[in-house]
Amino acid sequence: MMKKTIQQLTSSDRVLLASHANPDGDAIGALLAMGLALEKLGCEVVLYNESAIPAVYRFLPSVTSIREQLAELKYFDTAVILDCGDLSRVGSMADAIKAIPAIVNIDHHITNTRFGQYQLVDVNACATAEIVYRLIRAMDIEIDTDMATAIYTGILTDTGSFRFSNTNQAAFAICETMVAAGVKPSQVAQHVYGTYSLGRIKLLNLALDSIEISHNGKLSIMTVTREMLADTGTQAEDADGLINYARRIQDVKMAALIHELENGNGKPADRKRFHVSLRSDGSVDVSRIAMGFGGGGHAGAAGFSVESSLLELKQTIFNLSDGFSETCQLN
Asked: Would you state the pLDDT for residue 240?
C-alpha cells in the first residue's frame, strides 16, 4: 500500500490535507510535515483543521497556513486524512471531503475504520507522525528542520514525552534523527510544556475543584463548562491536558474529562453537546468504551462526543466503573 500511496500522491496536482477537530500535537505535527513534504514535490497543498490551533503549538513552522474554513473542493485530486480513526473526525466538512476522488488514510488508532482508497494504518506506530516520517523517507524527500520539528513534536506529545505505553523503539530513533536535522528539544519542550497563561491556571483551579470520584474509587470525572471558560477568559484549547491531573489520582483506573461544547441551535436548554476524553492507567481499554459511544482512540487514551444533560452524562460515566473488571480489562 505504501507504493500505491506514493504513486497517487506524486501524480496529484492539488492535495487537501486534514486532521481531526480539536487537534493535538500529533494531528498538527503530522499535518504540517506531510504538507511541507508534498510542497517539495511541487504539489499545490491546502492544510485544513476546523478548530483553532492550540496556543502551545503555534510555534510550529508554517502553522499559520492551516485553514479553519474551506470553500470549493472539486479541484482537489486527493485528500490526505491524518490521525483520524474515521473520516467523520475531521468535523463538519467530512461529507464534502468524501467526494474527493482519492482519499489517503494515515493513522495509528486501533479503532480506525479503514476508510479511503489508500490506507497507511499502523496501530503499532507510536504516532501518526511516525507513519508520516516513513512515508516521507520512502518518497526520497529530504527532511529539513521545519519538517523535523513537526515530526518531533508529534511523537513527543503523543507518547507523553516518552512516558506512555505506545512509546516504541522507533520513537527514540526517529526523534534522534530529527534532532540531527536541526530540532532543538529544549525549545520544543518550552513551547509545549513550559508556559501557561494566567487564565489557564485559573481554569485549572476550577477544573480541579470539579473532580468527582466514583464510589469504588476507580474512576474520576473532571468537568470544563462554557461558563468556566468565560469566567477565566480562556478558550477550549486551554483545557488540553487537564485530564492528566484527574488520571493521576491514587487508585483511579480511568479518568474522564467532560468538556461542554457550544450548544447547537434549537436544542432544549438541558440538552447540551459534550466531548468526553478518556484516559486509563493502563489497566482499562478506554478505546472499547469510546467505541460504544461512537468514538474511538487508543487503549490508554480515547474519546467521544455526545448530546446529553450534564447530570445524565456523569451518571452514565460513573456506571462504567462497576464493569471495569468484567468488560474492559487489558490482558
From this structure: 86
